[in-house]
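The data are quoted verbatim here:
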Amino acid sequence: MGARAAEAGRPQLSDDAAAYVRSMIMSGQWRPGDSVRPEAVGQALGISATPAREALHVLRVEGFLDLLPRRGFQVAPLTGQDIRDLFEAHALISGELAARAAARLTPEQLAELEALHHELLAAAHRKDLALLEEKNHAFHRLVNLAADARKLTWVLTLTGRYIPTRFYSEIAGWPQATLHDHTRILEGLRARDAEAARAAMRDHIAHAGDLLARQFDERTASEPGPA
């Protein structure tokens, strides 16, 4: 790859690295005080240390990492309540989008959501958690698109940067909560009941945040100190 082509691809690589590190921190895989080296991040993603280092500087500005003299990057303090707060912000916007989707869903979109829900149920029955995560993402994406609110969706992407994009299947209780909560969301959308859809979506996102926060606090309390 030429130097110009490599340079053009670096912003995407840096974004990918930042998303990876956020997920590792928010999911509790990396704990407050843990060292984060750009070389290790690059190796995990198959990229060079340069875009990984750029990502770590971005995460320092966002408050996910601290940069200490002679010690490098470390995971910044994070608590279960911090996680709940981030999910609560995401839940409020997601609820508004669901309310708007309830009024604007086309019959074709509703049919697609019904199909995705059945696929969710089938994936859970087979304990195919990777497929369950995939269908969950597709379900939420379609609801957000159906809302037809570009600026709100853009704001959701900002709060969504702090929501882990992986490891959901490893959160205790998440698969069961997803099936139950999605049933409520779909009922509200099917009935074209904006307030029911809003409440169901808001509760669903907040529920996921609470499950993750509990697991995060339990892991932090039970595991040895920072590596």
